[in-house]
Amino acid sequence: MAAERATNPFDRRTKALDIYKQGNYVEAEELLRSLIAAGFEIAGTHCHRARVLLMTDRIDEARQEVARAWEHRAEAPAYVVPRILFFQLLFAMQEEANPSSIIGTLKSTLHAEDAQMEWTTQPLLEHFKPRFKPEAYALLEAIAAAINSRAAIAELDDFPLWREA
Questions:
Q1: Where are the domains of the chain?
Q2: Which residues 6+ apart lie within 8 Å of 98 measured at CB?
Q3: Record: fold of 1-76
Q4: In this structure, which long-range contacts are made by residues 61-68, counting pairs with CB atoms below 8 Å and at least 24 apart in sequence?
Q5: What is the mean pLDDT of residues 153-165?
């Protein structure tokens, strides 16, 4: 695969994102799998792979990737933990389970230093939009914005589910 020929793992992950944005989920998944096998930023790469798997409706496999990311969260940069929690919240909300504990943890992690970094979630959110009630979808969008930018955290207080957790 041409994308795997890039020697720098950061470049390879960037290539996987570009491929993901183009909708080539098979190639993106293969590239991300190779990065995991190489031990590159394990928690974050599991999150990237989970995102690709969700785009292909492979929910159980995506859950496994998120669980693996959670197992490696201690060695991950601070911005990865909110991403893992975002996925956990997405799963809980899809099942209509009580998300309060996840939201409570997410609240504290979003305030950590270096907890924000740009993360492409719009294609994933659009893919899942029909599966959520409008208020749940709006909360997921707002959380995705807060994962990207600390300035968006205050807007989360507009959501009763966020305030009550």
A1: 1-76, 78-165
A2: 92
A3: 1.25.40
A4: 62/87, 63/91, 66/91, 68/42, 68/43
A5: 95
